[in-house]
Design a protein that fits this description.
The chain has 460 residues and is α/β, with parallel strands linked by helices. The chain has two domains: 257 residues, Aldehyde Dehydrogenase, Chain A, domain 1, CATH 3.40.605.10; 187 residues, Aldehyde Dehydrogenase, Chain A, domain 2 (3-Layer(aba) Sandwich), CATH 3.40.309. It has 15 helices and 20 strands.
């Protein structure tokens, strides 16, 4: 057994450690969780609501501590970590509201001779043991979205946080215990090897896998699930944004400056590609450069910082390699394009990268926004629809007909009008298409996925 070092991404210094677990230790946790399913020792709905109400109060009570911890381990600036914890509270509340308003259905009977003298309805039951594997970029709120819906619907849940950011997960689980949740209902695991983690995914006691992370890993883990197990996978995308010639350029620039570089671009729907109609390109790029150059890079714990570090130094190296290759291949560097330090990268704008450049073909997941000139919106849409990913997208235009046409023809699960691609409220559906994911995220939708509807047909 070894210790897992937790580092501050800004200076890469270890500030905490957490123990990894052997297969035997994890088996003890799995057995305790599955015992709930086997013996149907489910917590009553009213008790679950009571626990979640207590949890909200405890998050508020520990708010400042949770904000600082999430920022320190994940690299997100303090103000954005504050937003994350606030969203977490709202996510818990959404679970409570869903429990109070969502139930089963009445199934029509007596519609023909075969269904005469019958009454049928459904009620919801927990699907079984949930395994939640999470990502680093929202270390508190992602656990809220994966674990709290499971607890709300009565499922025991095993949570594996990202190795870079396990502390927020641990803190949330401790608050759940303090709120009155029996420990076997929500347990964190830190497997000492990838092989052990994969075997947990394959365990036939796992009824539902919630995975947030890379496409390569997510689709691989889906193949490892036991027959009958269900899953929800949330991967990344390209987050293309379009500006038509009638767009409000000032509003678009403000939106892109925020959504392109929030959390150093380490968000699955942060603006990565901006397609700009050629008639407004010059004004747009000049004003965007001015806006981006005002962004202050630095220590995420300092209040005047706008963009903090990448999660690991090797991510800085990777991003720089991609950017330099694109410049060599003919793209124009408008600003940035270099390391701020070993852990930070300057916000970068590239004009007209080749479609073969890695910054065009793959999700950058860093503070890089690529700008592409187009003449015809139809051609730009066609270009984007050839990607193997599809998630959220947006268009800036004051022409409603054009917006509706865009909505109809673009490959995306969500389209935003005069808004950036990273817009989200936690009760809306959130889903990747193509290789971007599987299933539907969002509190209500996750709760639906983690339940079955059992039908009873009564015959008079």
């Amino acid at each position: 057994m070894k210790n897992l070092d937790v580092r501050n991404p800004w200076d890469n210094k270890v500030f905490d450690t957490i123990k990894t677990e052997s297969e035997k230790e994890i088996e003890t946790k799995l057995s305790a969780a599955y015992d709930i399913i086997k013996k149907k020792k489910f917590i009553s709905i009213y008790k679950r609501i009571e626990i979640l109400e207590n949890l909200k109060d405890l998050i508020k009570k520990n708010y400042d501590k949770l904000v600082l911890q999430a920022s320190k381990e994940g690299g997100k600036i303090i103000s954005d970590s504050s937003i994350e914890i606030t969203r977490g509270i709202d996510g818990v509340n959404s679970c409570i509201e869903t429990l109070r308003t969502e139930a089963g259905h009445v199934i029509p009977m007596n519609l023909n001779r075969a269904s005469a003298n019958r009454l049928a309805f459904t009620q919801k039951e927990p699907i079984g043991l949930v395994l939640a594997i999470s990502a680093f970029n929202h270390p508190f709120n992602l656990i809220i979205h994966q674990a709290i819906p499971a607890i709300a619907v009565g499922c025991p849940v095993i949570v594996k946080p990202a190795e870079d950011t396990p502390l927020s997960c641990r803190a949330l689980i401790e608050l759940l215990y303090e709120s009155g949740l029996p420990s076997e209902y929500c347990q964190m695991i830190i497997p000492e090897s990838i092989e052990i983690a994969t075997r947990v995914v394959s365990d036939n006691r796992v009824a539902f896998l919630s995975f947030i992370g890379s496409s390569k890993v997510g689709w691989y883990l889906k193949t490892k699930l036991s027959p009958g197990a269900r899953c929800a996978l949330e991967h990344g995308g390209m987050a293309p944004l379009f500006l038509e010639r009638d767009a409000n350029v000032d509003n678009a620039i403000k939106s892109i400056t925020r959504a392109g570089f929030y959390h150093a671009g380490q968000v699955c729907v942060s603006v990565q590609k901006v397609f700009v109609q050629k008639n407004i390109l010059k004004k747009f790029q000049e004003n965007l450069v001015d806006s981006v150059n005002k962004i202050k890079v630095g220590n995420q714990l300092h209040k005047d910082t706008d963009v903090g570090p990448l999660i690991r130094p090797r991510e800085v190296d990777r991003i720089d390699e991609w950017v330099q290759d694109s410049i060599k291949n003919g793209s124009t560097l408008l600003t940035g394009g270099k390391k701020f330090s070993e852990t930070c990268y300057y916000p970068t704008l590239l004009l007209n990268p080749s479609d073969q450049d890695l910054v065009s073909k793959k999700e950058v997941f860093g503070p890089v926004v690529c700008i592409y000139e187009y003449e015809s919106l139809d051609e730009a849409i066609k270009r984007v629809n050839e990607y193997d990913v599809a998630f959220q997208t947006g268009i800036f235009t004051n022409d409603l007909d054009k917006c509706l046409k865009f909505y109809k023809n673009i490959d995306a699960s969500a389209v935003f009008h005069n808004e950036h691609t990273a817009f989200r409220v936690d009760w809306m559906p959130f889903t990747g298409l193509k290789t971007s994911g599987h299933g539907v995220g969002g509190i209500k939708y996750t709760m639906d996925d983690m339940q079955i509807e059992k039908m009873l047909v009564l015959k008079s």
